[in-house]
Amino acid sequence: MKRAVVLLSGGLDSTTTLAITIAEGYEAYALSFDYGQRHRIEMEAARRVANSLGAKELRVAKIDLRIFGGSALTDDVGVPKKRSETEIGGGIPITYVPARNTIFLSHALALAETIGSTDIFIGANAIDYSGYPDCRPAFIAAFETLANLGTKAGVKGAHFRLHAPLIKFSKAEIIHKALELDVDLSLTHSCYDPSPDGLACGNCDSCLFRLKGFREAGVEDPIRYANK
User: Fold this and answer.
1) How far is the C-alpha of 198 from the C-alpha of 88, rounded, in Å?
2) CA-based end-to-end distance of the chain
């Protein structure tokens, strides 16, 4: 069976990407990160999702991006709430974590090379991506080039492929794809600023994108929210 490394946060996009990977016949090695994020509860969601979908294994890489700061997810900065679609679409938000996908994909590349895989899957989305520059198709293509230039396997003739199957999907389309693959979306977590007992806030950009996606998909969101 072909092996693939899948970046898994436990959110809608990465969960659906893991389901796609497995449906395409790959043995999926899920990779999550404990990077000092305020929403560390997402790692519990990642573990639930990996177990539910039948990932070969889940590895958690522990790194501390708080040493750099610069993001509401890793620094003592408030997470924006109740922003309009115009505000959300008006630039790169403070929840952007500097170079996060570059760092995550570098770890995924190291794992792929170690386990003899040339396929890496990421749930990047260029439509509902909230302005993050490291979710764009150009970034995905550039990292694939880097992977083939900067690894022993690449130099020896292996061809790494960076898959972003949801890159052109709307959030509603992602939800429909997940349901088509029988994904239990109640296991997922998207909120940037959950309550102490793990409930989604319902007001951060990520929650607003999620709720909008479910409305447009005509499906009820199965998770609980603190403000409902």
Assistant:
1) 24
2) 44
CA distance 154 to 124: 23
Q: d(Cα 104, Cα 107) in Å, to the nearest integer?
A: 5
Strand 161-163 and strand 119-121: the pairing is parallel
pLDDT in tens, 64-103: 999 998 999 999 889 989 888 878 777 788 888 989 999 9
Q: What is the pLDDT of residues 109-135, one digit of tens each?
A: 999 999 999 999 999 998 765 678 888
Range 3-217 classified under CATH 3.40.50.620: yes
Of 81, 29, 78, residue with least CA distance to 58: 29
Q: Over the chain, what is the mean pLDDT?
A: 93
CA distance 146 to 126: 20
Q: Where are the domains positioned within the chain?
A: 3-217
